[in-house]
UniProtKB/TrEMBL annotation:
Coiled-coil intervals: none
PANTHER family (alphabetical): PHOSPHOENOLPYRUVATE-PROTEIN PHOSPHOTRANSFERASE (PTHR46244)
PROSITE patterns, A to Z: PEP_ENZYMES_2
Top-level EC class as recorded in UniProt: transferase
One GO MF term: phosphoenolpyruvate-protein phosphotransferase activity
A Pfam family this chain is assigned to: PEP-utilizers_C
Enzyme Commission no: 2.7.3.9
Catalysed reactions, as listed in the record: L-histidyl-[protein] + phosphoenolpyruvate = N(pros)-phospho-L-histidyl-[protein] + pyruvate
Species name: Ciceribacter thiooxidans
Obligatory cofactor(s): Mg(2+)
Protein name as catalogued: phosphoenolpyruvate--protein phosphotransferase
Subcellular location: Cytoplasm
Keywords: Cytoplasm, Kinase, Magnesium, Metal-binding, Phosphotransferase system, Sugar transport, Transferase, Transport
Keyword Transferase among record annotations: yes
Length: 755
């Protein structure tokens, strides 16, 4: 194992003393570069710091022209210094001026120096500046000298991160670490949130950088690695972890990385070069991240995340840091930033304090996003680099409407968003004033407004929103946030709790809709080429009758003496409804046999979301007590459009004639059979499309709790009969090319209907 010579060891010791002395920032920097030059026998040592405008400014030098300090500058990517900062990689050159990136700065007087060693000043893989040594003689610097300079750069990174250099930054300029940053992501949950950053896995700040005893630190590292390996082995041996599957492969990869000798050797070398065990882990982690952060290969990027996660676990072992401090010091306006997180982890946070969620990964269909949307939290996903660019406590704005995250926003942007939020708040006040107003249209049509839900945290919104009931309760969310299959008793208690909190208002439970993109961790399923059209919802439940019967029994017992209203998802043929009825009858007989009280009334319905049912409408209406249109899937399947595919998601309009005609046919069939009809998709929650639904003849719609106010404001101003006549003409006229959306918008404007 290579060890540092006495000179660099003296350097590290002297640096530790310098950091402890009560010095002004410029004097501290000047002494640091002087010490480095002396100990490395370099004729020049310079520190360049990255500003918020992407310029690297000379902050201190020993050997170059002192008058160039705070004047000499290079853009990111410009010259040798700019190249190092942009690539986050060191340069070791015997003849710097022969390098194609060399740029001559006459004010520095560096033309007489040939050999050049520059290292990036890194924090969490992000370049904050560059540290350089130079000599007149042509030479390549040794590997131990490179290690010494990289170690010294860590000290400077900490100095920059603490904000110490703000005092010597010229007026009107800011350092890169504090600059305003806008991150483009994807909108996963609408809404705007203003608050302060809470890192889901808080970054562990290593303050004890330099060691007194290398062998002691090597032992500390070995002990921590041993504990880490045991914890991974423990995860692999637990009974709840299936013996096969992709998650198993991930853990096996973790175990392989934890035993990786190259990783361990680099950390041990850093310790021998003067760092503490935790500083060595942070250095190797930062180096690895800097090298791999620009990779485009998704597999290799995932491996980088594995190493990053392992390093964080190791840092927690060494520092005794616990990240489970969700309530301690939690800001009143918190916006949570995470690389990825589980749905249950989100529920660990105090809901009343959360103003938004930012994810670097995940999809709009991931469990945590579904739960966050159910909680009414704005969500931005695919926000690359968000965690590294932010610090705990940074002011931040999340724009879930546009998919943007503004970290440390400029004052004018902050004011603009504050005004936007105030405007929304005023509108919400107006909507709250309508809470107890009966939902009657201008021409006297009574509309039933219900809300969609899936978690107990949704239930308080029933009263707050003025909803008359729950038109869709997604029972699968209980399964998706649980790490193990909910037992029959757990399901029963959960459903009973939902009914109790509904306080007599109608709750329509949808049976399990898992499979496809709704994957539960403990339920093994085959990988499918097109999961949306595959083994999911009622198809899966009928193939696993034990799973369905357990849920039916729990619903029946929870509804004892009350009304049970339930519906089946993803039904394709009426025969599937009959098959479930048979299972339900068996459960009723079983409960009766053992003296259990049954629901006083049972309403059995179906979600109409598969186009095949459109050719079975008469038969369907006779078979069920009610029908609920799932407009999201019905539109997707009717138009052959994947809503998650940006290229086609907006290609066809939900207010286009083909889809509105489909909905009109459903209304006519329900009216003819006298079967109650509702709609619980996204159409119901937007004033313009909800207006179209009322015009088509829907008298019951279900939506998110936050949409009820705007929808009620719209319908109170609406003359439904006039709109129905207009829509009828628009849908039957085969000669007009005017989009129905434009016709509806014009009608709303002409009649002062708020949208």
């Amino acid at each position: 194992m290579r060890d540092l010579s006495a000179g660099p060891r003296v350097l590290l010791k002297r640096l530790r003393e310098l950091m402890a002395e009560p010095l002004e920032p410029q004097e501290r920097l000047d002494r640091i570069v002087r010490q480095i030059a002396s100990n490395m026998v370099a004729e020049v040592c310079s520190v360049y710091v990255l500003r918020s405008d992407g310029v690297l400014e000379l902050y201190a030098t020993e050997g170059l022209n002192k008058d160039a300090v705070h004047l000499a500058q290079l853009k990111m990517g410009q010259g040798l210094v700019g190249t190092i900062a942009a690539s986050a990689q060191s340069l070791n050159l015997s003849d710097a001026q022969a390098h194609p990136a060399f740029r001559y700065l006459p004010e520095t007087g560096e033309e007489i120096y040939h050999s050049f060693l520059g290292v990036p000043i890194l924090r969490a893989g992000r370049s904050l500046g560059v540290l350089v040594v130079q000599n007149k003689a042509q030479r390549n610097y040794r590997e131990d000298e490179l290690e010494a300079l990289e170690t010294t750069a860590m000290v400077l990174a900490e100095m920059i991160a603490t904000g110490e250099l703000k005092k010597i930054t010229r007026p009107g300029l800011e350092l890169d670490l504090t600059r305003a940053v806008t991150i483009e992501g994807d909108s996963y949950g609408e809404g705007i949130g203003l608050g302060y950053v809470v890192l889901h896995e808080p970054r562990i700040v290593v303050t004890n950088l330099l060691n007194e005893d290398s062998e002691k630190e090597i032992r500390r590292l070995a002990d921590a690695l041993g504990s880490l390996r045991i914890s991974i082995d423990d995860m692999l041996s637990r009974r709840e972890v299936a013996m096969e599957g992709e998650h198993r492969e991930v853990l096996e990869t973790y175990r392989m990385f934890a035993h990786d000798q190259g990783w361990v050797r680099r950390m041990e070398e850093a310790i021998h070069n003067g760092l503490t065990a935790e500083a060595a882990v942070e250095k190797v982690q930062s180096d690895t991240k800097a090298r791999m952060i620009r990779l485009t290969d998704p597999y290799l990027r995932e491996r980088m995340h594995d190493f990053d996660d392992l390093a964080n676990r190791l840092l927690r072992q060494l520092t005794g840091f616990s990240s489970r401090s969700t309530s301690e010091g939690f800001p009143a306006d918190a916006i949570i930033l995470a690389r990825a997180m589980g749905a249950a982890e989100l529920l660990d946070y105090p809901r009343s304090h959360i103003r938004g969620l930012v994810l670097e990964e995940g999809a709009v269909t991931s469990h945590v996003v579904i739960v966050a949307r159910a909680m009414g939290i704005p969500v931005v996903g695919q926000a690359a680099g968000a965690v590294a660019l932010a610090e705990n406590g940074d002011p931040v704005i999340i724009d879930g409407d546009d998919g943007k995250v503004h970290v440390r926003p400029m004052a004018d942007l902050q004011k603009a968003y504050e005004e936007k939020v105030r405007l929304r708040a005023r509108r919400q006040e107006q909507f709250r004033a309508l809470r107890d107003v009966e939902p009657l249209t201008k021409d006297g049509k009574r509309i039933l407004l219900q809300m969609n839900a899936g978690l107990l945290v949704d239930l308080p919104q029933l009263t707050a929103s003025g909803a008359e009931g729950i038109g869709l309760f997604r029972t699968e969310l209980q399964f998706m946030i649980s790490s193990t299959m909910p037992k029959a008793e757990e399901q029963e208690n959960f459903y009973r709790n939902v009914l109790r909190q509904a306080e007599g208002r109608t709750v329509t439970f949808r049976t399990l809709d898992i499979g496809g993109d709704k994957v539960v961790p403990y339920f093994r399923s085959q990988e499918e080429e097109n999961p949306a059209l595959g083994w999911r919802a009622i198809r899966l439940s009928l193939d696993r009758p034990g799973l369905l019967r357990t849920q039916l029994r729990a619903l029946l017992k929870a509804s004892a003496g009350a009304e049970l209203k339930m519906m089946l998802p993803m039904v394709t043929e009426v025969s599937e409804i009959r098959a479930v009825r048979e299972l339900m009858q068996k459960e009723i007989q079983h409960l009766s046999k053992f003296g259990h009280q049954l629901p006083k009334r049972l309403q059995f319905g179906v979600m109409l979301e598969v186009p095949a049912l459109l050719w079975q409408l008469e038969e369907l209406m006779e078979e069920v007590d009610f029908v609920s249109v799932g407009s999201n899937d019905l539109f997707q399947f009717s138009m052959a459009v994947d809503r998650g595919n940006a290229r086609v998601a907006e290609r066809f309009d939900v207010l286009g004639r083909p889809f509105l005609r489909i909905l009109r046919d459903i209304v006519r069939a329900a009216d003819k059979a006298g079967t109650p009809l509702t709609l619980c998709g996204e159409m119901a929650g937007k004033p313009l499309s909800a207006m179209a639904l009322l015009g088509l003849g829907f008298r019951s719609i279900s939506m998110s709790a936050t949409s009820i106010g705007p929808i009620k404001a719209m319908l109170l101003a609406l003359d439904v009969d006039r709109l129905s006549q207009l829509l009828e003409t628009a849908l039957d006229d085969h000669h007009t090319h005017l989009p129905v959306r434009d016709i509806l918008t014009g009608f709303a404007e002409d009649n002062n209907i708020p949208l």
